[in-house]
Amino acid sequence: MNAESDNFEALRKLLALKRYEQPPPGYFNQLPGRILSRIEREEPTFMEKLARVFVFRPAMAYALGLAFCGTFAAGLGYSLHLRTEQMAQQRNPLEPWDIGAFSNLNPSHEDSTQFPDLHVRGYDNFTSATNDSAPKPSLFQSFEGRPAAVSYSFGH
Amino acid sequence: MPPPAIETDPNDPKPGPEDFELVQRAQREDIRAYDELIRRYQERIYATVYHMTSNHEDANDLTQETFIKAYRALKLFKGDSSFYTWIYRIAVNKTINFFKQRKNRMHMSLDDMDLNAEHDPDLLSLMSEKTPERDLNLAELQNKLNEAMQRLSEQHRMVVTLYDIQGVSHEEIGKMMNCNVGTVRSRLFYARQQLQAYLSDYLE
User: Which partner for B198 in B17, B74, B93, B148 could form a disulfide, CB atoms 3.0-4.6 Å apart?
Assistant: First the structure.
């Protein structure tokens, strides 16, 4: 340690010269007054006040935390309840994706015309025809093409 | 003679009421007690911040902010450490945060040297050498010294300031900077090596 101190002795002497650097004369007489006037003038921020209250009254911090959690939980519960009610009220039995609506649907021509989007040409006739004794239309009736021989071997 | 280094023993008797008594009164918002505490520590706090920043205006602002913050947090002070260590810790943190916020700004505004400096034997020996590098005046030496200090990192500069300039013990520095004594010693050794390299022209 002594060797280390000796190594840096000149440096320490040089650094000690910095102690001579002094602020303007009278500076330290005025500084306390400036600080105290700033303390009186500048109000602590809201967060500083809050932190101070919580540090000195931990029970208050716990109570506030509890109240906050309670309010949050109650709000969440009420919000979920409200949402469920709204969904129940807004439920439209005519929505095509609603399974409940399809379960009540009478597959007659009159009913199906209420849903233009679901109205398929040919299908209505087909479905209504099922009630009659008329013969069922063939799916291949309108096919007019002719079968042609094809070879799947390579090179042909 | 240079002004004496600060007391490293926080329990040293001081004239007038003890720090603890003043702190208790200030905690009850006795502004006169806090005024007394400011007068007790303002020079040390200012000097520490000034040697870190090498700028009088910044040191002035940071010193004021340190005492204002300490007053607002005074009720949190439980007396686990001395008031002296506690307020130093605030000053150290404020100064290091200041450097983090103003990373690229480096402007020196140096305090004038005390007239007694010209009679300091150490300074005379430094300036009386005949080598051209040492043919410099007091202001130049002051500038070189501060420039070299500013080239150190904040942590290293703080250790040199507190130990070599302010005279604070390793243990107290550890408490102030929230690190162990070994770290303080290693930082001090590294910082001195760096300074010695920067100032080699002015050292024997």
Answer: B148
Domain borders along chain B are 14-103, 116-204
Specify whether domain B14-103 bears CATH 2.40.50.140. Answer: no
- According to CATH, what is the number of the domain B116-204? 1.10.10.10
Residues of A with CB under 8 A from a CB of B: 4, 8, 10-24, 27-28, 31-32, 34-36, 38-40, 42, 44, 48, 52, 55-56
Q: Please choose, from the candidates A149, A21, A143, A33, the residue with its C-alpha nearest in 3D space to the C-alpha of residue B117.
A: A21
Angle at A125 between CA A122 and CA A127, to 5 degrees: 105
Q: Is the pTM of this model over 0.95?
A: no
Mapped onto helix, strand or coil, the DSSP state of residue B112 is strand
Distance CA B63, CA B38 (A): 10
Q: What is the pLDDT of residues A101-126, one digit of tens each?
A: 555 555 555 554 555 555 555 555 55
Is there a contact between B111 and A23 if contact means CB atoms under 8 Å apart?
Answer: yes
pLDDT of residue A104: 54
Looking at the structure of chain A, the number of domains it has is 2
Complex prediction ipTM: 0.76
Q: Is the pLDDT of residue B132 over 50?
A: no
Q: What is the pLDDT of residues A63-91, one digit of tens each?
A: 888 899 999 999 999 988 888 888 888 76
